[in-house]
Amino acid sequence: MGSLSHIRVLDLSRVLAGPWCTQNLADLGADVIKVEKPGEGDDTRHWGPPFAKDAQGNDTAESAYFICINRNKRSITVDISRPEGQDLVRQLAAESDVVVENYKVGQLAKYGLDYESLKKVKPDLIYCSITGFGQTGPYAHRPGYDYIVQGMGGFMSVTGEHADFAGSSPQKAGVAIADLFTGMYASSAILAAVIHRDRTGQGQYIDLALLDTQIAMMANIASAHLCSEKIPQRIGNASPIIVPYQTFPTSDGWIIVAAGNNSQFRHLVTVGGRAELADNPLYLENPLRVQHRDTLIPLLEEMILKKTKAEWIVLLEQAGVPCGPINNMQEVFENEQVQARGVKLSVPHTSAGNMPLVASPMHLSETPVEVRLAPPTLGQHTNEILQERLHLDSNTITVLRNQGIV
Does the entry feature the keyword Hydrolase, yes or no (predicted)? Predict the structure, then answer.
């Protein structure tokens, strides 16, 4: 039994931040019902290629994007634009502990599915809204997009090659970090609200914003600005205060070298055949190496280019110099540590046969995370949920289907 096996979650969210949150809750054992639009479903179902393949190697209707954020959930299709559909969702909310949604501010109020409406049928309900800019402020009604928030929240101002580097520009992250972090904060806030409800019987409303989250996750960068009033700049893959602490190209790929002290620097240049650099007066101490990085780094680049990525990893690990490869995704899943940790899973799926998934990183000794359900096909569990939760008979469900309500 998972830690949250006693918790029921009604998931009205779509795309990434909300589904990431509810997948975390589902992985911990919560019974998550994903409400989708009949005939269309979550937008990410159509975000491909790539799509999962069946046993014959043909594409299924299951996009890789949807797959990564919707395991351990059950899917029900309901048209919430119609009064009958709204009533079904209200009944499901009354049987739930948590509701998660990421509609525009005020949009669900016209359907009677906002917090004020639903807490009338479930007074101790925990209701989490995820938006781009939150429920208050002059930007509240703007739509929120991760890419834009990465820019507005300062992340892109410090990500990318140094402004003096030819052709440099601000860069976004390779994944939607504002969405993903917001989903993580949302799941943490929901767990706190569950504990509060269990102690006091009180539900509550949770207001999560992508922009707030993006600024919060700037961590030491934001703090440095507030303390110094200086504006942090892009510096690429190098550290502003430690040299060498950056990426280097090898003869067949890239590695990261993190020589954080004088001893590690000496070991680095010694195994690279340039031991004399450790005794150069310009590079004896880290502050000197920072000061003279423009002359030192080209020498190190020339040295590191002479060996392969694998050769350097072996040499530096033996010498006690912190290092690591920059792996592509194939190399990630071929890595012995990744394989030992069971990061790649394969679960049965109705159309894809065995569907590959990335495991949750949460390892609990007494209530371990397990994949109980593959990412659902659209509306896969509609009949099951209506019968189980709302006690509707097959004739009533058939009428709802014929009317296009489910």
Answer: no
